[in-house]
Design brief:
91 residues; 2 helices; rod-shaped; mainly alpha; 85% helix
């Protein structure tokens, strides 16, 4: 028991500056780990939002193209209706 007491007494007491430095280092280590995790989350969030935006943009472009095709088909149908049916007598 005297040996444990001797070891406890032999341990030097840290100065205020050393304690502050130790706390600062622990704090830096904590934030380095946390920053890496936050950076990963931010990356995943950014990629998700980007994929969503690209999806909406692609869908919009596709629907506009389909609308133009439908308009072209409507125009062709109107021309054929105005001309009337093609028969052997009027061709």
């Amino acid at each position: 028991m005297s040996k444990e007491g001797a070891e406890g007494a032999a341990k030097p007491r840290l100065t205020a500056a050393e304690e502050q430095l130790l706390r600062h280092r622990k704090n830096l280590d904590f934030w380095k780990k946390k920053t890496a995790r936050i950076r990963t989350r931010n990356l995943l969030t950014g990629l998700s939002i980007g994929a969503f935006v690209v999806g909406i943009f692609s869908y919009t472009i596709l629907s506009v193209k389909q609308e133009r095709i439908v308009e072209e088909l409507d125009e062709e149908a109107r021309i054929h209706i105005i001309r009337g049916p093609r028969t052997g007598a009027n061709s």
